[in-house]
Amino acid sequence: MNQTIIARSEIDNELSKRQIDLDPAGYFVIYLDREGGLICAKHYTNIINDQGLAADPETGEVIACKGGVERTATTVFTGRTAKEICVKIVEQTQPVPLTMLDHAAYLGREFMRAENALVSGEEYVQD
């Protein structure tokens, strides 16, 4: 494998380990609808508790990262391209369901990864 690609991969892997603050406006679960040719993003609301953890706004229960309680998405966004879904979320939805620039940048990266996987047929797993 090309040294430049390895170096980029190592940079991204290391950056994925950093601490990030949770967006009080909620979080997104991104997946592909291959049959429909769509990138999909379910948006869930949350609150941030005193410990800095995401919690269900109705129950106050901490939301587990893996598995756990089934929640109902507030909104489901879809687009055929990363740009289309980003425009729907950031430009066509009021209020915008995210409040942090790092969250918006993360979503843009993930939507590009999802689009590439949709086009190439590769598996997509949200980072």
What would you note in describing this structure?
It is built from 3 helices and 5 strands. It is α+β, with helices and mostly antiparallel strands. It has one domain. It has a 3-stranded antiparallel β-sheet, covered by helices on one side. A hairpin with a 4-residue loop joins strand 1 (27-33) and strand 2. The longest helix is centred in the C-terminal third of the chain and has 20 residues, at 101-120. It starts with a helix and ends in a 7-residue tail after the last helix. The model has no long low-confidence stretch (mean pLDDT 90).
Show the helix and strand layout.
Elements lengths: L2 H13 L11 E7 L4 E7 L2 E2 L5 E2 L19 E5 L2 H9 L10 H20 L7
Antiparallel strand pairs: 1-2, 2-5, 3-4
Helix pairs in contact: 2-3
Organism: Gomphosphaeria aponina SAG 52.96 = DSM 107014
Protein name: DUF4346 domain-containing protein
InterPro entries: PterinBD-DUF4346, UCP037673
Short description:
The chain has 127 residues and is an alpha+beta fold. 33% of the residues lie in helices and 18% in strands. The chain has one domain (22-120).
Which key terms come to mind for this protein?
single chain, 127 residues, two-stranded antiparallel ribbon, alpha+beta, PterinBD-DUF4346, 3-stranded antiparallel sheet, UCP037673
SS elements, strand count: 5
Structural class: alpha+beta
**Approximate shape:** globular
Major β-sheet strand ordering: 1-2-5
Main beta sheet: 3 strands, antiparallel
**Unreliable stretches, pLDDT < 50, 5 or more residues?**
none
